[in-house]
Design brief:
Elements: H1 2-16, H2 19-38, E1 47-51, H3 59-67, E2 77-81, H4 85-93, E3 99-105, E4 111-116, H5 122-142, H6 169-178, H7 180-194, H8 196-202, H9 207-235, H10 244-266, H11 272-289, E5 300-304, E6 307-310, H12 316-330, H13 334-363
Parallel strand pairs: 1-2, 1-3
Antiparallel strand pairs: 3-4, 5-6
Helix pairs in contact: 1-9, 2-9, 6-10, 6-11, 6-12, 7-9, 7-10, 7-11, 9-10, 10-11, 10-12, 10-13, 12-13
């Protein structure tokens, strides 16, 4: 009952001062929509290639290039004949063509190839890499050279990422949910600045009851944010090959972890301004160390029951990132993610208990 009273008090404060809760909801949604609009292009685009000449011996190679498709049936290359070499150069410079091809024949009748484009233009870098990987074997065959290596590719996942935002979606979820920590820290820091914690210390309230009340109140907004983010992703057509319910469950556990760590960080500060700044630093460190935007090294520490324990495995966000990737990309069932969900939950409880101890030592004495 005492915990519920603390939660009710915090919820009433949020209701009478709705700016922070509204920003807590609207800012992540706005960032999600802006990011989706910026990266909504197909992940595997069709590259426009300008042909500088019509080498008769290259007809078969060009036919094979034009017939290449992605697994979903879209063409890899769109070949367009340029009026001249100068026209092909102009198309490449204006980026109306991603690259230009120039075939020629040596004295022995063997084909040689030049690929031209803007070296600072990422679509050209991707297109030229694809062209080289496809054309090398074809040109060797044209020269009569034997095939030394045969590559066969097979997808490990039943689903395919279709837009440039699809691989970024799990990381965006991690980032937005971890920012709940600084928001939660504001309210605990405000209680310290106003002297409310001093009055609560005189009441028969334990550190666990106080922090549990704050966590319950802040979790209401966190649960709403998680549902809104995943609902917005669904409406925007972001491709989740797995279960939306498992995605929501993962986000909810990460929400409790983020809020708990935010309150623990706030215990080391004296006011809401310091609480927000200090917690933001730890939240951003978690974002990057979790692998949300950059692949981090494993940094193994020891083996436990046949499992390798890495340095960043002590962060709930690292497990959440791997779980969401498994769900979004590989359609992972509950049995495949149950172990990591259990580890996330255990870490949440552990960090909450540590926060209660720190709060008792620094704020209730």
């Amino acid at each position: 009952m005492k915990t519920l009273l603390i939660a009710r008090k915090n919820l009433l404060e949020m209701w009478h001062e709705p700016l922070i809760p509204l920003l807590q909801l609207l800012l992540p949604l706005g960032m999600l929509i802006i990011s989706w609009a910026s990266y909504s292009a197909p992940l595997l685009p069709t590259y426009t290639i300008a042909l500088e000449n019509k080498a008769p011996a290259a007809a078969l190679i060009l036919k094979e290039l034009a017939a290449m498709t992605y697994p979903d049936g879209r063409p890899v290359f769109k070949l367009e004949q340029a009026a001249s070499a100068a026209a092909a150069l102009d198309e490449v410079q204006k980026h109306t063509a991603h690259a230009s091809l120039n075939f020629s024949q040596d004295n022995q009748g063997h084909l040689t190839l030049n690929i031209f484009g803007d070296g600072a233009y990422m679509p050209f870098i991707n297109a030229s890499s694809l062209l080289e990987s496809r054309l090398t074997g074809m040109l060797d065959k044209n020269k009569g050279l034997p095939e030394i290596v045969l590559f066969q590719t097979r997808s490990l996942y039943p689903g395919l990422m279709k837009t440039q935002f699809d691989p970024l979606a799990p990381g965006m979820l991690i980032f937005m949910i971890l920012m709940l920590g600084p928001q939660a820290a504001i309210y605990l820091g405000r209680e310290a600045r106003r002297g409310t914690l001093q009055r609560l210390r005189l009441a028969p309230l334990s550190a666990g009851q106080i922090l549990a009340g704050f966590t319950l109140a802040q979790s209401a907004g966190g649960i709403l944010l998680s549902v809104l983010l995943l609902g917005c992703m669904y409406l925007l057509g972001i491709h989740n090959n797995g279960s939306w319910l498992l995605s929501i469950l993962t986000c909810l556990i990460l929400t409790f972890s983020s809020i708990g760590m935010g309150l623990a960080c706030a215990c080391f500060t004296r006011n809401d301004f310091d609480a927000y700044n200090v917690t933001s630093v730890f939240a951003m460190l978690q974002v990057f160390m979790s692998g949300a935007f950059f692949n981090m090294p494993a940094l193994p520490l020891f083996d436990l029951l046949g499992h390798r324990i890495n340095l960043f495995d002590f962060l709930p966000a690292s497990h959440a990132m791997l779980i969401l990737r498994q769900i979004f990309v590989a359609n992972a069932p509950f049995s495949d993610i149950a172990q990591r969900l259990g580890l996330m939950s255990a870490l949440c409880v552990l960090y909450f208990a540590a926060g209660v101890w720190v709060f008792r030592q620094l704020k209730l004495r």
